[in-house]
Design a protein that fits this description.
This protein is an alpha/beta fold. Helix content is 61%, strand content 8%. Among the domains are: 311 residues, P-loop containing nucleotide triphosphate hydrolases (Rossmann fold), CATH 3.40.50; 108 residues, no CATH class; 84 residues, Tetratricopeptide repeat domain (Serine Threonine Protein Phosphatase 5, Tetratricopeptide repeat); 99 residues, Alpha Horseshoe (Serine Threonine Protein Phosphatase 5, Tetratricopeptide repeat), CATH 1.25.40. The strands form 2 sheets. Strands 2-1-15-14-13-3-12-11-4-10-5-6-9 form a 13-stranded mixed sheet. A two-stranded antiparallel sheet has the order 7-8. Helix 20 packs parallel to helix 22 and helix 34 packs antiparallel against helix 35. Keywords: TPR repeat.
Length: 985
């Protein structure tokens, strides 16, 4: 990642889907952000911080209001418990509703920015965020010094830029004087201030310790016993009296006692900054974000003191690291303006923070330090200093004075001036115009944050610290869990439970580890504790989901479904429970219920490939192959893991097989096999499917070759050998059939296919009794008994024993409800006996097992006999392949459409038949009858003439003419045609 993704470009006043990214190298030439209240500058600043951290660039952030500290709020899976402590409501119900809406908006806006929950988790896992507070233990307390050590290049600065050092010392002295005497006394105590500046300069020159309490002590000692003789031209005693000097010392001494003594408690700024940038990086290292929260310092002088200390310490640390062209660290202040009491005031006002910031702006670039400065008060800052910022972000500015001031500082082109004026007046929240380092101008809308955005109060910080007491262990454990290092994660969650036995989140995550390791009993115990817990850290929906998975793994499908139902009752948007419920329903052939659940899943997870894959399987089971094909295409579009692509491509090939798209199915099979080869996984099922397609094409040699490929890879595959035997039987190759059965016999002499096909060979040769004797020699209870019973039924049919045949087919279906041979022969028997309703029911069962076209063909004819023409048409509409070789199918459909008075469809089907069979009269007869229904009699007669040219001896032609003339009212001609029909019989 080399760019910082900050938002989506705005073009012609509208937000586009095109990303706006800032080159990370531009950070070292510094960034300035300005915009009125509500412009979104703080969010933009946070975006820059987040992106810097995602690029492994550590950051120091000065938080003046508490809104930057919310970067620490531990978002991970966007559950309610993560933000519950930071969203208030008028009542418990109101709070819950606000939490729900807040999270819903977060997820929606995150997706709108092209980001995912995984990005939130990666950000959290990759960063080490710390909050530091001065003079307070509300968070990690840090100590500051009223005096700072001299820059490392002190001697060089004194030669080349003495004003930098002198201003820095003067500002330190001013801060101390204001604290001790108040600002109004500054002019009357100029001698005391000058003495202090000289004392600090002396301490700089000798390299004395100036940090913390020791620095104040050394300053007092230096003033008490002055080590230099003169100040300017005057001796020290001539410059200031001993009495005034003692007054100064007594005041300095107050910095060592009382409330001011709290400044020295906690980890030193120097120690903190030393750890910011890692000089040696290891895999898995986290990037540091140090937030210095100054929101509880009400006094500007206190804030000024702290900010200056941090800036100088950071500068010294970066300089020690040496030169760098790459950004090495980021320094961010959210508000540098505000008039006289600002950190970067316009000239002639000077203060310590301004001096320190200028030092960072002028020299930080050389060491890889980038500054990001922001303000909502652009009229009150030092634009001369901001010329060092080469990237400017400008949001909405309400006043003309502010706009003019920004234009003065930006030194923009005329084009930019025009664009800027129109943009900032119309800019909404989050809309910014940028003048980049290279002078290019763009407009964009800032992206959604990966972190929670809120101004954290004192109480919020207390709650946050409490929440995160065990967060490090939770986060490390969660990271290991995400990496599937389950055994390594368990000790971290155990550590939390030792300290806090009621930690619901630790219980739940511990349960997930045990579940992944297969210790389902231990996992269930933890999830049961989660459900009994009154906390809302982990989520009961999630616990019920895992308990459902445990029940499912144990084979308790109904119990699992009950638990998944409880899960979605707790949280209607817990998607995984819908997926698992759909999988169970699909496995149990309850595909209507499966479809309801998987549809809910894909609504919640619209980009989940696995969801569309399962949906494709469900639609295929429901025989809605077009919907199945659409679903698998979506699954493949969303699938990112190439190693999982094979089953998706194979399923697409199967679906196209059922759609009758056989040539395309073969292409998809080749693609699936190529994917399997790359992934190193077997693809024998592809060859199996290919053999079925070649059978449809009557390319028997290729079908045999495909099956032999399967058998070569798995020589003991009885199913493949049985399929090969069936193929040879269908093409009447008795020699090859016998050879295949012998191969099968070597593997399993009891295989039912051996006896079934040998019996059928005997039956085909007329040896009915021998066939019956052979098939009856095998016990009915063996595997494959349904095949034997189906053949026995065929033999009984051949012997004219219909009752015995029906009984045999019935027992075959009892043994195996999916016995296709038995179901098909049973339907044929019912057809012979004209029991069409029974035939229909059996054919529907056969189709549920396997949607073969011969079943649909017979079903269509069965519906015709039941006068159910619409159902007949629907059945024939499934004959994707047969219709290519048998135009009679279209003729039948045309006749049925005539019965239903669907004229347009009748013509369409009749035309298709005529195109395929132009020398057959049937199509013209149907066309004539259809025109008659439309009262287009001349067209009808014309169709009959076409038929008569082909054959005038078919009585159906004359009966059709009689019908048309009768409809015309020409009864004489109608009777003549009837007589002609009689004569043709």
């Amino acid at each position: 990642m080399s760019d910082l993704y900050l938002g989506k470009l705005i073009k012609s006043g509208k937000s586009t889907s095109e990303r706006y990214c800032l080159n990370k190298l531009d950070l070292t030439t510094h960034v300035f952000i300005c915009g009125s209240t509500g412009a979104g500058k703080t969010v933009l600043g946070k975006c820059i911080i987040e992106e810097a951290l995602r690029n492994q660039i550590p950051a120091v952030v000065i938080d003046l209001k508490g809104d930057l500290s919310s970067l620490k709020v531990p978002l991970y899976d966007l559950s309610e418990n993560e933000v519950a402590d930071f969203i208030e409501g008028n009542s418990e119900a109101d709070q819950k509703e606000k939490i729900r809406k807040n999270l819903a908006e977060f997820k929606q806006m995150l997706a709108g920015s092209g980001l995912e929950i995984k990005d939130v988790q990666n950000f959290r896992n990759g960063t080490n965020i710390k909050i530091f507070t001065p003079k307070s233990r509300v968070y990690d307390q840090f100590s500051i010094s009223f005096l700072t050590s001299p820059p490392d290049n002190f001697d060089e600065l004194m030669r080349n830029e003495p004003e930098t050092v002198l201003n820095h010392i003067a500002n330190q002295a001013s801060v101390i004087f204001k604290r001790m005497f108040g600002e109004s006394a500054m002019t009357s105590l100029s001698e005391e201030k000058t003495l202090m500046e000289c004392a600090i300069m002396h301490l700089y020159k000798i390299g004395a310790e100036l940090e913390g309490r020791t620095g104040v002590v050394n300053l007092i000692k230096t003033i008490y016993d002055v080590p230099f003789e003169r100040i300017g031209m005057l001796k020290v005693r001539e410059f200031i009296s001993d009495e005034r000097k003692m007054t100064l010392i007594r005041r300095l001494n107050t910095l060592l006692v009382g409330a001011d003594s709290l400044w020295y408690d906690g980890e030193s700024i120097d120690s903190i900054i030393q750890s910011l940038v890692k000089t040696e990086k290891s895999p898995g290292d986290k990037t540091n974000l140090y937030i210095f929260n100054l929101s509880m310092l009400d006094n500007f002088d206190d804030r000024n003191l702290v900010l200056a200390n941090i800036a100088v310490t950071l500068f010294n640390r970066m300089r020690k690291l040496g030169d760098s062209r790459e950004p090495r660290a980021l320094f961010y202040i959210d508000e540098i303006g505000g008039g006289k009491l600002s950190f970067f005031p316009d000239d002639p006002i000077q203060n310590e923070s301004k001096s320190s910031i200028n030092m960072l702006l002028r020299q930080g670039r050389a060491f890889g330090l980038g500054c990001v400065l922001a303000t909502q008060n652009p009229g009150d800052i030092d634009y001369r200093g901001l010329t060092n910022c080469h990237t400017w972000f400008v949001g909405k500015l309400l006043t003309k004075a502010d706009r003019d001031k920004v234009m003065q500082g930006i030194s923009a082109s005329a084009y930019f001036l025009e664009s800027y004026e129109s943009f900032v007046k119309m800019a909404g929240t989050g809309d910014f115009i940028i003048k980049a380092k290279d002078g290019t101008v763009s407009a964009f809308k800032e992206r959604w944050l990966l972190s929670f955005h809120k101004v954290l109060t004192y109480n919020d910080l207390v709650n946050l610290k409490k929440t995160l007491l065990f967060a490090d262990d939770i986060m490390v454990g969660s990271d290991l869990l995400a990496k599937k290092e389950y055994a390594a994660a368990i000790p971290y969650f155990s550590s939390v439970l030792l300290k806090e036995p009621d930690s619901q989140k630790a219980m739940g995550l511990m349960g997930e580890c045990h579940f992944a390791l297969g210790a389902h009993k231990d996992a269930a115990a933890f999830f049961e504790r989660v459900i009994k817990s009154k906390q809302n850290e982990y989520g009961q929906a999630r616990a019920y989901y895992f308990m459902g998975e445990i029940a499912s793994a144990a084979g308790h499908a109904e119990k699992a479904l009950e638990l998944f139902q409880r899960s979605v009752k707790c949280d209607a948007e817990y998607a995984d429970s819908y997926f698992s419920a759909a999988a169970i329903h699909h496995k149990n052939q309850k595909n209507a219920e499966a479809l309801q659940n998987i549809q809910k899943y894909v609504v919640l997870r619209p980009a989940a490939a696995a969801g569309y894959h399962l949906m494709a399987l469900v639609y295929m089971a429901l025989q809605d192959y077009l919907a199945s094909d659409n679903s698998i295409k979506k699954a493949l579009a969303f699938l990112k893991d190439a190693s999982r692509r094979y089953p998706y491509k194979f399923l697409e090939a199967r679906i196209n097989y059922y759609l009758g798209q056989n040539a395309h199915s073969l292409e998809l099979i080749d693609e699936a096999k190529a994917v399997a080869s790359q992934s190193g996984i077997p693809s024998y099922e592809c060859d199996y499917l290919a053999s079925m397609i070649y059978m449809r094409f009557k390319e028997y040699d290729r079908a045999v070759s495909s099956l032999e490929t399967v058998i070569a890879a798995s020589p003991r595959d009885e199913e493949a050998l049985a399929s090969l035997a069936d193929l040879y039987y269908q093409i009447s190759n008795a020699e090859k059939l016998s050879e295949t059965l012998k191969r099968l016999e070597k593997i399993n002499p009891s295989n039912a296919s051996i006896y079934a096909y040998n019996a059928r060979l005997l039956l085909d040769s007329g040896r009915k009794e021998d066939a019956l004797k052979l098939i009856s020699s095998q016990p009915e209870g063996l595997a494959g008994a349904d095949k034997l019973l189906a053949v026995k039924g065929m033999i009984y049919n051949a012997l004219g024993k219909k009752d015995e045949a029906l009984a045999a087919f019935g027992r075959a279906v009892e043994f195996n409800p999916r016995s296709l041979d038995a179901l098909y022969m049973l339907s044929k028997n019912y057809e012979t006996d004209k029991e069409y309703e029974k035939q229909r029911d059996v054919l529907l069962k056969a189709i549920d097992c396997q949607a073969e076209e011969k079943f649909y063909y017979d079903l269509g004819l069965c519906y015709e006999k039941l006068n159910q023409y619409q159902q007949a048409i629907e059945s024939f509409s499934r004959l994707y392949l047969s219709v290519l070789s048998d135009p009679e199918i279209n003729l039948k459909k045309a006749e049925w459409y005539v019965k239903l008075n669907n004229i347009a469809k009748a013509h369409e089907c009749a035309d298709l038949f005529i195109k395929a069979r132009p020398r057959v009269i049937d199509g013209y007869i149907v066309k004539g009858e259809t025109f008659t229904l439309e009262k287009k009699y001349e067209e009808a007669i014309e169709e009959y003439y076409k038929a008569e040219k082909i054959s005038s001896d078919d009585p159906r032609l004359w009966l059709a003419r009689a019908f048309t003339y009768n409809e015309m009212g020409d009864y004489v001609k109608s009777d003549d045609c009837k007589n002609m029909a009689m004569s043709k019989k």
